[in-house]
Every structure is written in structure tokens, then in C-alpha cells.
Amino acid sequence: MPDILIRKIPKALKDWIDNQSHSARTSTNAFLIDLLDNARQGSQRQLPLFDSMPEPVETQSSNNTKVPFTFCDLFAGIGGLRLGLEAVGGDCVFSCEYDKYAQKTYQAWFGEAPHGDIRELDLTKFPDHDVLAAGFPCQPFSIAGVSKKNSLGRKHGFLDKTQGTLFFHLATIIEIKRPPVILLENVKNLMSHDKGKTWQVIQDTLDKLDYEIHFQVINAADFVPQHRKRVFIVGFDRKIFKGKSGFEFASPPEGPKPKFKDILEENPESKYTLTDHLWNYLQEYAERHRKKGNGFGFGMTDLEGVSRTLSARYYKDGSEVLIPNGSKKNPRRLTPREAARLMGFPDHLNIVVSDTQAYKQFGNAVVPPVAESVGQQIARVFANKITKRNGCLLKSGA
Fold it and tell me: pLDDT digits over 337-364, tens only?
């Protein structure tokens, strides 16, 4: 039956079936049977963009092109990259996150429990997708992470066997699944770690995988009232885009910059005000380091400006982002909701974990508006590669 069907269909469709079965490492018969079975069961799963070729949709703003595409959310955290990609038309078909508390938040927000350890994934069951998004672990490369590991006599970067090598698991997935586009995020220090050697390894690895690579350090202060510099890496499969994707990172948003005061709650609970003991300790600690010529200390935030970077250690003392609390009160720390707003997460997403876990999660998260800005530029590339020819949607230059 499948053999007869293949002989009777147009050549273009037969070529598509051959390519799909080859990519899936299965026979054409098995591929067709699986395809028909999915149709029989009424599967609603969206096919990858570069198979189904949906038409780009122009929204009311000419700056927002939405192109339906599929993506996987790896090292997902609480879904900062996912929110950004969904905002520009993305459909998440797979997610993976190791931390059980982040999994709890992710399930509450997106209605699905991410898969756990990326090292234990069955890649034969990994779905096809258009964009592989991954905020792979940054602690081995961050300034704070390196300092902590040095103090403990532990390895960092790619020598960290528990986290640093996860990049190579990611590279294996890219090699096997060949997503048309990859979107990676990490701390700015990734580029300078180990005198630039770590960054060179990452660039060389992605280049050998045959991806056209673009990268840029983006400060989230253009989107939220927080200094937060992160490197975004966007790669395009040269076999599909011929090394001419035309991708460019967007310019910072126009108009007034966000102000810290805009994220504050009106009546925060008194428990967020620092105790006399903690406030005295932070002041003494800052003074000791000031006398030594160091810059360590607390950060009292200008309500009309932006804060320091929110880190995963914020739950310990809140020292990097303190809020003036009037002349008669000690300063206070952010509430979890304010921490969410500082990162660009909308209020309708309920906080379902403890304050401690919430601070850790937001401190580790990707800023959704930044992810949306990068995702918008990826969507533009998709739209530019799709044209109408004789009533059929095809890739430009195919």
C-alpha cells in the first residue's frame, strides 16, 4: 500500500517524504504509517516550520512579525526563553529542566512538567523542531560561580564535570536533530572565562556543526529596571540558510527607560524590611571592604534609576538590591513579586514556591522581554525565507 501510494503522488511530495523518513532514520513505509496513524488519532501537534511552511502573519505593529514555528526549551529554568519565543509565534514541543522547584513553577505556568536530566534523554524520541533554545548552566562561567569554585578548590568552566560539560550534551543534540536555528543564552563572563579559551571552544564547536553564528551581549536595562548583561548566541544551519540568514540583533527599544520605582508593590509585608542585626552587618561589611579599596557591599537602589543585577543568592541577605524604606526604617529587600517584575515576568503568573526558591529562580532566569526581542529577529529571518510560488509556500532560494 505505501509503495503504491508513493508511485502515485507528485514528485515534490515524494521527495518530501523521502527527506522526512531519512531525517527520522526510518523507512518511507514506516514514516507513512506513523504519519497516517497520527492523522487518524487527530494529532494537533504543529509540524516544524521548514516542513509545513506557514505564511508569516503581520501584526498591528509593523515591527512585530509573527511566524508560527516550533521550539524546544532546554535548561528551561522557569521559562524565560519560552515566554519570549511564544510572544513571537513559537510553539514549545519539548522542555527539559533538572531542578525540581523550577519544574514546579514551570508546570504551574505552562501546564507541563519538563523532562529532567538532559543527560538521560532518549534522543530517538526527541521531537523535530525549528528552534533549539537553551539557557545552559552559567555557574561554571559566571564571576560568582568561578570565585566560589576557586575558594572550594573545585574546577570551573568545561573542567566542571557536573555542569560545564553539559554544553557538549547540548552540542550532541544539535548534531543529531539539526534544528534550523539555535538560540543560546549565558552570562557575559562566558566570553572572557579562562582568557577566552572557553568562548573559543564554544564558537569552534558550533562552527564545526555547520552553523552561522551571531552573538551579542545585551543589557536588560533597556527592557527592565535592572543592569543585567547576558550574551545571546543565535545560530543558523548553513545547509538551510546558505550562510546568508540576514540576521541582526535589534536596536534597544526607543522611548523612556524603565524605572525601578515602577516595579514596587504599594504595601509590602514588614518581613521584607531588614532586621537591625542584618542591616548593621551589611554596613560594617561594606565599610571593611571600602577601607581595603574593594567595591564589595550592599546596593541601595535609586528609585528613579535601575538596580544592580539580581542574582540567585539574593535570598541570603538581599544585599545587591536594597530598597530605601523611609528615614525611620531599615531598608528592605524585594518581595518575590517585585523580583518577578524586575525580571520582566508578568503578574498573572502565580508564584507557587517559597520566597527562597522564588529568589533563586528569578535570579537564574532569562528576562522574557529580552528573549522576545531576539526571538522577533529570528521570526523576521523566517518570514524573509518564506515566499508564495504558484500557490505553494516555499523557502526563498530553495
Answer: 999 999 999 999 999 999 999 999 999 9
Specify the residue for cell string 504599594.
Answer: 266
> Burial letters for 39-73: b for 16+ Cβ neighbours within 10 Å, e otherwise?
eeeeeeebbbbbeebbebeeeeeeebbbbbbbbbb
Q: Are strands 131-134 and 181-187 parallel, antiparallel or unpaired?
A: parallel
Please, are residues 342 and 225 in contact by the beta-carbon 8 Å criterion?
yes
Based on the number of CB atoms within 10 Å of its own CB, is 330 exposed (0-12), middle (13-18) or buried (19 or more)? middle
Cell 572572557 appears where? Answer: 192
* Virtual torsion, Cα 270, 276, 280, 283, nearest 10 deg: 20
Query: What proportion of the chain, given as a percentage, has pLDDT over 70?
Result: 73
CATH number at 50-254+367-395: 3.40.50.150
Instruction: Match 522576545 to its residue by C-alpha cell.
Output: 372
Which of the four pLDDT bands, split at 50, 70 and 90, describes residue 398? very low
Give the count of beta carbons closer than 10 Å to the beta carbon of residue 122.
Answer: 7
DSSP 135: -
Confidence check: pLDDT of 120 > 60: yes
CA distance 149 to 67: 43
Q: Residue ranges per domain, the chain?
A: 2-44, 50-254+367-395, 260-363
- Indicate the CATH number for domain 260-363: 3.90.120.10
The answer to whether 50-254+367-395 and 260-363 have equal CATH topology is no
Q: Flag whether pLDDT at 138 surpasses 70.
A: no
Q: Which long-range contacts (CB under 8 A, 24 or more apart) does 3-9 make?
A: 3/29, 5/32, 6/32
Q: What is the pTM (predicted TM-score) of this model?
A: 0.78
Measure the CA–CA gap between 304 and 263, rounded to whole angstroms: 11
Q: In this structure, which amino acid lies at residue 53? A: M
Give 26-63 pLDDT, tens digit per residue.
666 666 677 666 655 554 556 676 655 445 555 444 46
Catalytic, 138? Answer yes
The grid cell for 288 is 571593611
Measured CA to CA, the distance from residue 42 to residue 336 in angstroms comes to 42
Kindly name the residue from 72, 92, 96, 138 that is annotated as catalytic: 138
